[in-house]
Structure formats: C-alpha cells, structure tokens
Amino acid sequence: MAKEMKDLQKQWHSMMETIHSNPHVVAFMNSRLGRYLDNHPFVTLSLLVFMAVSAVPVAFFLIFAISTTIIACLGMVIIEGFVVSLGGVTLLCVLGGLGLVSLAVSGLLSVSYLALRTMLSYWSDSNGLSKKEAANGISLPPNSSPALDKSATNKSE
Which InterPro entries match (predicted)? Predict the structure, then answer.
C-alpha cells in the first residue's frame, strides 16, 4: 500500500507541475486576484466548491434555454395552428350560442306578440264591436253605456 501511495503522490506532483508551468496559470497567479486567492485558501476552496456545485444547475438551465428556443422556433407553426384552431372553435361556440339566444328571444317576442294580439282581440270582441262596425267608424253601439245616458238625461232636465 505504501508503494501505491508513493505512485499516487508522484502522479499528483507531476499534475501540479504541469498546471503551475502553464503560462495562463502563471499569469493568473501573478495577478492581484491570484495573489489574494493564494494568501486566502479558505476563500479559494469556497469559490472552487461553489463553482463545482453550481456547474450542474447552470448546465441544466442552459440546456433548457437552448432547447426551448429551438423548440419555439421550430414549433411556432404548430403552436400558431393550435391557437388559431382554438380561436376558431371558440368563435364557433360563441356564434352558436348567440344563434340560440336570438332564436329564444325571437320566439319569446313572437309568443308575446301573439298573446297580446289575442288579448286585445278578445277585449275588443267583449265590448261588442264587430270588425265591420269598427271599420265603418262606429265606436259604440247605441244604448250600451249608462254614462252616455246621463248626458241625454241632462239635456231633458
């Protein structure tokens, strides 16, 4: 086991040498931020852990955003067709409902008209007027109303 640990330690040191010899890493470590992170290992570790943990959610979000954009571009025709179809069905339902309401209102008005006409016809027939007399302009038959007789009796007095 000691030999395996020494091999692992050698691999670790060679990897660290490769990283520290990279010119980009050397330039970063010579910068102000690199020196600060080198002097504060807890901040460096916290930043490293945060970047490692947040990589997966950020990747999922980017995949979601890109796939949504692609689907929106490609599926716009389908979505637009669905929305237009839904609007057409809604319009058809509204117009059908308005047609039924207009039939109900016109039926109600027709029934009301017929009922009113029948009541007026019955009322005028109950006064004793015939259609022929009403057409000739005779409004009341003679001796039909006691109110008219009062005027006649007033003249005789």
Answer: LDAF1
Burial of 29 (0-12, 13-18, 19+ CB in 10 A): middle
pLDDT digits (tens, 9 = 90+) for 78-97: 878 888 899 999 999 999 99
**Token representation of residue 37:** 């992170």
Residue type, 78: I
Q: Which residue has the tokens 């670790």?
A: 12
Radius of gyration of the chain (CA): 51
Collect all residues with Cβ–Cβ distance below 8 Å to 20 and sequence separation of at least 6.
26, 29
| Cα-based torsion angle of the residue sequence 97, 98, 101, 103 in order, rounded to the nearest 10 degrees | -110
Whole-number pLDDT of residue 130? 57
Averaged pLDDT, 5-13: 90
Residue 67, SS3 per DSSP? helix
